[in-house]
Design brief:
Layout (H helix, E strand, L loop, with lengths): L18 H12 L12 H14 L8 E2 L2 E2 L6 H12 L5 H28 L17 H18 L3 H5 L4 H19 L6 H17 L3 H17 L1 H7 L5 H30 L9 H8 L2 H14 L3 H11 L7 H19 L4 H4 L3 H9 L7 H31 L3 H10 L9 H22 L8 H17 L4 H8 L2 H9 L6 E5 L3 H9 L4 E4 L9 E7 L15 E8 L7 E7 L9
Parallel strand pairs: 3-4, 3-5
Antiparallel strand pairs: 1-2, 5-7, 6-7
Helix pairs in contact: 2-3, 2-24, 3-4, 4-5, 4-7, 4-17, 5-17, 5-21, 7-8, 8-9, 8-11, 9-11, 9-15, 14-17, 15-17, 18-19, 18-21, 20-21, 23-24
Length: about 600
């Protein structure tokens, strides 16, 4: 039995968003967070340190490392991209050069999400109701409008902003997930050439495998096969031809499925042959984690804010289109979403794995828009206006307090959180922030005015609002964020107490801390070996956590504490800087 589609869309509502608006919004979302930002702590800075070392020693392509310690646990491809960019763009600061490939990967994510929604919206089961006297949306115009909405929905996701702008494995995996989704969507289009689809799929599968996620690649393949198994009648209806034409279509579809499976298995086999980054999951640890009620509460909170507002719209899509659940335009993104949510559970609720679920979630969210009533659309608009206007106002108030000291309470809070930070007025941050704020007011005025209906109008304010707040943070607050989120200040203070041409021994420091000493401090860093090479270093830097095991690596009587350097505040991360006592030498093997 064929159920009527819930989408009722006129040709007037299927207007596509002007291309200059879409491109401008995309650029305003991508550029802040890359331009002028230092590598921030943890994954961003740790990956950058490995990229610099790989660029200096390109012979270690299959063994990226930092000070001799392997960095294979998150895959090779992000390191390769960053190292190649550093080598190819020597006139740029190294961290800016390393960020260039990841800007392109974020752009690829947005483009592939648009095309995935476009291909799925072209399918017969996704089309709106045909009006008795005509005037329904043309299939191509309808598909473009829904693709615009999917892109806006992805930009509106709160969880996308920070992780997608880092020079780390997450941006690479996200782009390849979006590419795989677009390849899946293209593969169910009747009459499409096989070669481009298989090329997209191969790039996605090998990209995921070399980014340390071959298991996720296999999960995507299995989810796609499950989706195809669920719609046998729907897929045959799509190819409703008889005789030789029907047989050719079936043979082509079978060849497509076999080729996609072979490529996914080949990518996983390649990753396994050269090391399988990330290793195997600890099943006992996963089960123990989810036996705690607090773990489920944490996951619920993460899902609530990380996927806002796409999760609610996607749930609405699944409800309103429930009678068409066997249609490919619902099954494919839903199957991919379920696979990535399963991966999130297997990784104990990691937000970095949940990030990968945003492209299929945005595609599902777009199909909710043709079924929304005017009151629901208005509610979404007013929530967006309230949330992002208040957020932007707070960002401006705190910035004014930082620069002028008024209001006094926010200024005091910033001074407490960021000791030694000296705020300064910077016109190159203020002018873009002011223009973007005026543009936000213009968008509000346009949206609340009387205009022709459009499918994507309900998401314009949400996407523009998150773009505004992200851009304000990365223009007005950028100096403060660099001071608080990077390790440049503490590295430069350590370098100021290190004699020129002297190396520094380290103990208990993580990769990002070592990378900061090398890049921001300009120091020659080496780990304790217990051999003659240690004698050339007159300084020793130890983390507060690593001090307990320091005596196991060297004779602490040969060193005395020179300074305690807190990263920000005294009660937070502290580096202990030791000076070699006069006459003390490193022991021989």
């Amino acid at each position: 039995m064929i159920h009527p589609t819930p989408a009722i869309v006129s040709q007037h509502s299927a207007r596509r968003l002007p291309r200059w608006v879409l491109w401008t919004l995309g650029l305003l979302y991508i550029l802040p967070g890359f331009i002028g930002r230092d590598p921030w702590r943890n994954a961003d800075l740790a990956a950058f340190g490995v990229m610099r070392e790989l660029a200096a020693q390109p012979g270690q392509w299959l063994h990226p490392q930092l000070l001799g310690e392997s960095a294979q646990t998150i895959g090779w491809l992000p390191y390769w991209l960053g190292a190649l960019a550093i080598h190819a763009l020597p006139w740029l600061p190294a961290h800016q050069a390393a960020q260039m490939p990841f800007m392109a990967l974020l752009a690829l994510t947005l483009i592939c999400t648009w095309y995935a929604a476009y291909y799925l919206a072209r399918l017969p089961g996704a089309q709106p109701v045909v009006f008795a006297f005509g005037g329904q949306a043309h299939p191509v115009d309808y598909a473009r409008a829904l693709a615009d909405a999917a892109l806006l929905a992805l930009l509106a996701c709160l969880g996308l902003a920070l992780l997608a702008h880092q020079s780390s494995v997450d941006a690479a995996r996200l782009a390849f997930i979006a590419l795989a989704l677009a390849a899946f969507a293209r593969s169910v289009q009747p009459g499409k050439n096989l070669a481009p689809t298989l090329g997209m799929w191969a790039l996605a599968m090998f990209g995921l495998a070399l980014s340390g996620a071959p298991g996720i690649a296999l999960l995507l393949l299995l989810s796609g096969e499950w989706a195809r198994w669920c719609w046998p009648k729907a897929s045959s209806d799509m190819m409703a031809t008889e005789g030789a034409a029907s047989h050719a279509q079936a043979s082509k579809a079978l060849a497509m499925r076999g080729s996609m499976a072979a490529l996914a298995l080949a990518a996983a086999a390649l990753a396994y042959a050269i090391g399988w980054p990330g290793g195997w999951l600890d099943g006992h640890a996963v089960l123990a984690h989810w036996q705690l009620g607090a773990s489920w509460e944490s996951l619920a909170r993460l899902l609530l804010w990380f996927t806002w507002p796409c999760a609610l719209l996607a749930a609405w899509t699944l409800w309103k289109w429930r009678r068409q659940w066997r249609s490919p335009h619902l099954l494919l993104p839903a199957a991919c979403l379920l696979a990535l949510l399963l991966a999130t559970l297997l990784h104990r609720g990691s937000d970095r794995i949940l990030l990968l679920a945003l492209p299929p979630l945005a595609v599902l969210a777009a199909f909710a828009l043709p079924t929304l009533t005017r009151s629901v659309a208005a509610l979404i608009d007013w929530l967006a206006i309230l949330l992002f206007s208040v957020s932007a106002l707070l960002i401006w108030i705190i910035w004014v307090a930082m620069v002028t000291g008024v209001p006094a309470e926010p200024a005091a809070n910033v001074a407490k959180l960021l000791p030694n930070f000296v705020p300064r007025f910077q016109a190159h941050g203020f002018v873009p922030a002011l223009l973007l704020t005026l543009a936000w007011l213009a968008v509000i005025a346009w949206r609340t005015g009387r205009h022709q209906p459009a499918l994507w109008k309900s998401l314009v304010l949400s996407a523009s609002g998150i773009t505004l707040c992200w851009a304000l943070l990365l223009t007005l607050w950028l100096p403060a964020l660099n001071h608080g989120m990077s390790l440049a200040p503490i590295s430069q203070r350590v370098a100021a107490h290190t004699p020129a041409q002297q190396c520094v021994l380290v103990h208990g420091l993580a990769h990002e801390q070592i990378a900061a000493l090398q890049y921001h401090g300009g120091l020659r860093v080496q780990r304790i070996t217990g051999g003659p090479a240690d004698a050339t270093c007159s300084r020793l830097v130890v983390s507060s956590e690593g001090f307990a095991t320091l005596s196991q690596r060297l004779d602490v009587r040969h060193w005395h504490l020179l300074r305690e350097e807190p990263r920000l505040r005294e009660n937070r991360d502290v580096w202990l800087v030791f000076e070699r006592r006069l006459g003390a030498t490193a022991p021989q093997h």
